[in-house]
Amino acid sequence: MYQYTSFDQQFIEQRAAQYRDQLQRHLAGQLSDTEFKPLRLQNGWYIQRHAPMLRIAVPYGEIASRQLRVLARIAREYDQPAPNLLRHAQGLQDALQAAQPGTLAAPPLRYGYGHLTTRTNVQFNWIPLEKSADVMDLLASVQMHGIQTSGNCIRNLNADALAGIAPDEIADPRPFAEILRQWSTLHPEFAYLPRKFKISLTGGVEDRAATHWYDVGLKLTRNDAGELGFVVSVGGGMGRTPIVSPVIRSFLPWQQMLNYLEAVLRVYNQYGRRDNVWKARIKVLVKSEGQRFTDAVEAEYAQILSEDGGRHTITDAELERVAASFVQPELQPANLPHSVDTDSTAYQRWLERNVRAHRLPQLRVVALSFKRPGLAPGDADAVVLDAVADLAERFSAGEARLTHEQNMVLPWVHASDLPALYEHARALGLARPNIGLLTDMIACPGGDFCALANARSIPIAEALAERYQDLDELWDLGEIDLHMSGCINSCGHHHSGHIGILGVDKDGKEWYQITLGGADGSALSGPAMPGKVVGPSFSAAEVPDVVEAILDCYRAERTDGETFIQTLRRTGLDPFKQAANAARHPAITTAPGAATPTDLAIA
Hints:
- GO terms for molecular function: 4 iron, 4 sulfur cluster binding; heme binding; metal ion binding; oxidoreductase activity.
- Keywords: 4Fe-4S, Heme, Iron, Iron-sulfur, Metal-binding, Oxidoreductase.
- The chain has 603 residues and is α+β, with helices and mostly antiparallel strands.
- The chain folds into 4 domains: 6-141, no CATH class; 158-324, Sulfite Reductase Hemoprotein, domain 1 (2-Layer Sandwich); 345-427, Alpha-Beta Plaits, CATH 3.30.70; 447-600, Sulfite Reductase Hemoprotein, domain 1 (2-Layer Sandwich), CATH 3.30.413.
- The protein has helices at residues 6-27, 33-41, 65-77, 83-98, 132-141, 174-184, 257-271, 282-289, 291-308, 316-323, 345-354, 382-395, 418-427, 458-467, 471-477, 543-557, 564-571, 574-582; strands at 45-47, 52-57, 62-64, 113-116, 121-124, 158-159, 199-202, 216-222, 228-234, 247-253, 355-357, 363-368, 379-381, 399-402, 408-414, 442-443, 482-485, 499-506, 509-516, 532-533, 538-539.
- The strands form 4 sheets. Strands 16, 17, 18, 19, 20 and 21 form a 6-stranded mixed β-sheet that branches.
- A hairpin with a 2-residue loop joins β18 and β19 (509-516).
- α1 (6-27) runs antiparallel to α5 (132-141), α3 (65-77) packs antiparallel against α12 and α16 (543-557) runs antiparallel to α18.
- It is globular, with a radius of gyration of 24 Å.
């Protein structure tokens, strides 16, 4: 993992001190709510439906055990709402429930936990603003912060969760991601872009980083001469207008990564729309301008090289300096005793679903499933965060990784330690062998917490997890990506799910739009593409039955060995659409003005 220099550490400590001063002035009445808002947002502090929400960056997903322990402490000591606030928030939820008879029962609001997001951030939903500066100091002590997790700037850098360890890797993208992180942090020219800007990197043949769904995707490759560089795609994104990014450069020498990105961002800064928030993302500019956008970027890139002499050209020495932080850790097997029957079905299923090959033949990558019945996808309380820190120290050189599927992986596990690790993870509820299966669903916090959400995600996720607990049935269904968002902002990546669920507000009530056939670009899903809407929205109570009808259709239509997405691609949408709409409850009519495929068209 990258280790902060003294400059890095001084920077985030000074930033935490600046925030403490700003907070104190706000609490003293010297800064109004309006004046304080941009200051807190620049440090990752939002005000959500019930309370402040903190978003903490985990650059390219790498997290150390000492950092996990601090997150556990924050969950235990700070993510604790005052009793009157909790009663008020629960009252709002109960009122919403009462206003929609027949809807799914919602669980009580939870607190004292961190939430793993689809962009390798960690969020806390209940920290009192008065204690926020103390939390920033704690984070700074372990090289963490919330800088640029909000705002119209370059956000937290994402990368393949198997970076540096995948057998199919062309080169390790982490040093490049770290160089990008340092370059983009508080970059004065790109602090006020037309809209937020997200970058993802991968070095594998398989795209495990959903790069075509990002504003910029960087895929390491080699040209015919064997030289290392990037395939650059620009203009992807979800939200109201789902667009898969086109490739605008098939080979960019790695040395020119920063210069080329500067050209992309300058063109976006100059021509991106600022008059309409729904049309301000770079994807809309790329879609509308086409080749003219690429030509403008290439012209700006040429000008940067000619005028500045490529002052941001990455040298071999700079790459070696940063790459030195990503050397393979010293690895010794834990050799802990265990009582696991390694021939048991349960253990063999765990090996198949949760354990992946490593570039080093004696090692394995182990996924910890944060998709457990009774808990929201990606939620981790203080006990679990501390326990994962223990597992990382015992079995994985003190390191874990966050994934965009809202799970964690341990990247440095000796094959001989797998039975002991399984025993420990099973005791924590983290060894459920459902990675890549239906219940390994992605879901945002939705209307239970988010101020932007139109509908709740967590009750839907819990209803589906409850219905599909049987592992034999899950294994029969096979690999299925189910993604769920509580609003059109798509934090739950519903557009890229084989089955996508989108919460919509119709006349003050929660309804849900179903899409089918989305793909994130992984080997399982095929080339990235948005799903297609099956029809008008469904009520919350209908959604589990609709999903069941879709899965029953798959069972009826599939051939031997055919996955859900393969069957859908072969048969087309019609049989699934008919099955979904046949599952509507007779007593419930379609919401007036319910969304249709036309609503997703580019205006």
